[in-house]
Amino acid sequence: MARERAVTQGQLAAATYLDRTTVSHIEKGRARAGEAFWVGADRVTEAGGQLLTAYRRLEAAKHEQQAAARSSDLAAIRAKADDFRVMPTATADDEVAAVELARRVAASDVGAETLTRLEQAFDDLAMAYPVTPPTGLLARLRHHLAYVGALMDSRMTLNERKRLIVVGGWLSLLAATVHVDLKQLAAATARLRTAANLAKQVDHAEIRAWCFETDAWRMLTEGDYRRALQLSHAAQELAPAGSSVAIQATAQEGRAWARLHRPRETYDAIDRVDKLVSPLRRPDRPEHHYRYDPDKSVAYVATTLAWVGDPAAESYAREIITRLEPTESNGKWPRRMAAANLDLALALLVTNRLDEACHAANQAISSGRVVPSNHWRAAEVIHAVEAKQLPEAAELRDAFEQMRRQQLSVGG
Fold this sequence. Notes:
Blueprint: H1 9-16, H2 20-27, H3 35-45, H4 50-84, H5 89-106, H6 112-128, H7 134-151, H8 158-181, H9 185-201, H10 205-222, H11 225-238, H12 244-259, H13 263-277, H14 296-308, H15 313-328, H16 334-350, H17 354-366, H18 375-387, H19 392-409
């Protein structure tokens, strides 16, 4: 099959989330492939739905044959029960039904390997989040979500279905986050609802908490700080104790208080974040968006202090920039570096060092890593320097508008 379409076994394996050995067994008739395999095979071979249609016809015929065989088996069992009078017919029917239920629960077209690869794919995408342009990441997320949707119609065990629902929830959550970054608010809302509904089905408190936390950030970017405060509190109530989402939701609370010009509550939230972070060790994959890296707390403090108008934000922002510079050449933290430069610019505004603020803001804007959801942070600096009629203001405004046009042209 793969050779007829000039598609290698490796390409087919990648498209169907299987290994090459399994694809080889399927080609030779030694292994059975479910519908999700044929969806992927149809796509990679550009068969126009022919492979999937043929599979469904074959499955329909097999199901008819199996139903007839089961009816025959049941009839034979009932006849034996009547002949031997060992037990009432109703009891025999119950036992056969129990056996049939066990058989169906154990039957699966998905398999542990496919689910493991999907879970690994999600982790890879979550780690790609800090360094990948949102539009590119969203395209990859849509591909994986479509595959999860196709798998939902497959036969699988109860445990496999739970794992599939969980990974679908995580992928939907990350997609919602990217939509927020791109200011695609209707899509973000839809993705968050899907993630929350999937999480409810399997009682996954962590995903539900992240949904509230993500929505809190969305409200911050929209300027609805009261609503952001409510959502951050809801996330904290759901979040498992000491979890990454518990920390991040507390951080969002502090940001909301800062934007509401409530310094006492702001500093209290900063203190609580510090207490939650202090016992943590740096995770193996600190770039993973849903695993809290203790180094993030420095960037968080810089942002929050800048928003509350505390000049101390400058030292925190410079610290995080210094930390990130050695790895910037590797492209590891470009988005966090851009945010740190914006925080530094805001902190410099507090002390009326406008020319330095312009330079820091320009560093962020020229990086191309200020996502649409953070445009307002850059705009605050621009408005401040424009109000002072600095000569650098025009150049900064031009760079900002050029960045916006470029992002719009690629779907941002």
